[in-house]
Amino acid sequence: MKVLQISHGIYPLSHAGTEIYTADLAQALIGRGIDVTVAIPATAKTSEALSKGQLQPFVVPIERAPKGRFGNKLRYATFRGPLWQDELRLLIQRISPDVIHIQHAIGFGPTLFEWLEKFGLPLVITLPDYWLLCPGILRDCDGNVVQCAKLCCADVQWARFGFAGRLATAIAHRRRIKRFVARARPHLAAISRKTQLIFESEGYPKELIHLHPWGIDVRPLRDSVRQVSEDPAHTRIGFIGSMRAHKGCHVLAEAFVRSRPIAASLHFYGGGDEAYIQTLKQQFEGPDILFHGRFDHGSAAEILAGLDVVVIPSIWEESYCLVAQEALAARKIVIASNTGGLADRIVHGVNGFLVPPNDAAALSQEISTIVPRSREIAQTLDFDRSLLDIGDDAQEWISVYETAIARQPRFG
């Protein structure tokens, strides 16, 4: 079987969840005899990575526009369309995939869906976030298109169009993708139950949306496990990931301060919004609250090995959280916001603990309760619950591909 995956990036070029998962899944599928190619938009980083031999041979960067000041403008003027269409067409002709799996299309835009439809190939689309519904991805608008134009689109490339322009573009974005789904009827893979429910509430056909949680490579995390609280008198609490306001780092810092005096330290690992991080440092940094900066995902197991408790204080509808899975695999106590996909993976008191999102007082109370008894609590938790290894996940994807191929055989 030949599979073409399309994503907006891939690890090690990017360290976000979708990119890491795309790389891990491709490796796992290849290990099971599947011929996988991953197409990503070409950037300056991909050129540098290629020159250093840092990209896997299955990764194919796609140039989006000719170099130079005019970009695709001259191509549009001569009715040729953007350069990426030519490059992707040549790739499809060369590898002749049996199925196309779109992990994320934001790097190419909604046009990608309509353009791929012309090939008559089975299409599988992962729903890793809410970009198909909300150009701002986070869906702060809660489905209200007017609020989407006001809140979600203020920071995207449409911001310069003013409110009326953003509103018109947001409406067109939603309609365009929904019409494509109605015509092409692709297999839609929601990575959490909450994501599935939100897409159904937005009018996407229920019969097309299938729940497909993501797996992780469990082995290296299990290999790195150490006993919780090697120093029983001191507990290391950690946040791992992108440090941005919607991730709730400020809520965690405030909760930790409220928990004092406590025999613990708080460690932030990750980069992100530099202005936001600097504000956090100015307000909270001290002997027991440390900021360790950016890290390579390859060192995640080592970081987890040095922590006792991992907190995921997201204040948005987190569709999925890679860190939650990794922390469970490393047998760490997880305290997470009771929102989105986190509530799918964490069962309160069974394999971790849930607190209301954006509630520093409730999080502080949970920290104060857990820290003095962290060793005892860790021995009672079922860390294997909700874990899915990437190998088993890959096998499930193979079944999805086979079903998609059988349902829509190649033609033309």
Shape: globular
Number of strands: 13
Multimeric state of these chains?
Answer: single chain
User: What's the tally of helices?
Assistant: 17
Order of helices and strands: EHEHEHHEHEHHEHEHEHEHEHEHEHEHHH
Beta percentage is: 5-15%
In CATH terms, what is the architecture of the largest domain? 3-Layer(aba) Sandwich
Helix/strand/pairing class, anyone?
alpha/beta
Count of all domains? 2
CATH superfamily of the largest domain: Glycogen Phosphorylase B
- Which sequence of strands runs across the widest sheet? 3-2-1-4-5-6-7
**Main CATH class of the largest domain:** Alpha Beta
List the main descriptive attributes of the protein structure presented here.
412 residues; alpha/beta; Rossmann fold; 2 domains; seven-stranded parallel sheet; six-stranded parallel sheet; 17 helices; globular
